[in-house]
Amino acid sequence: MGLALATVHPVRGFLPDLQFTLKGAGDVTVTQQDFSGKVVLMFFGYASCPDICPTTMAQLAQVTEALGPAAEQVRILFVSVDPHRDTPDILQAYVDQFDPHAIGLTGDEKSIAALARRYRVAYQIQRPDPQNPDAPYEVAHSRGIYAFDQQGKAVWLAADGESQEELLTAVKPLLH
Questions:
Q1: Which homologous superfamily is 9-174 in?
Q2: pTM of the predicted protein model
Q3: What is the per-residue pLDDT for 6?
């Protein structure tokens, strides 16, 4: 009998509390205080990501849908590492396609880099060509879903390929 490796890792005490200042839709400043009392599921990506990000968004949307009315206690934060293309309004339109409890956030390069460092997220953007600013470019980013409890404490980190059932099992104890 093989032992399955859990990919939802407890991180309480190992990762810092939720803390950021970014921009949301309408260019509104958003901080961790806006999510006080909510369970936050945060991950990093970008709106034109061809595969990982939409899959993760769909997966998290299935989790909140499965929670029923308790989903009101959860917020999905999609933080873009591609501020050149992802405006706050573009991001919100993107996440709205998946889940009404999702918030798209971005910021300037410095604030995104600081938040990524805080949670040990690696990403790399191929510099846009100044001669051809609309040309596509590559963005590479590490993957993972960070969960924070209602007090903003980091509680677990999950692989983005984790099953909906495992994520649901990990979220439920965080709810009131």
A1: Glutaredoxin (3.40.30.10)
A2: 0.89
A3: 52
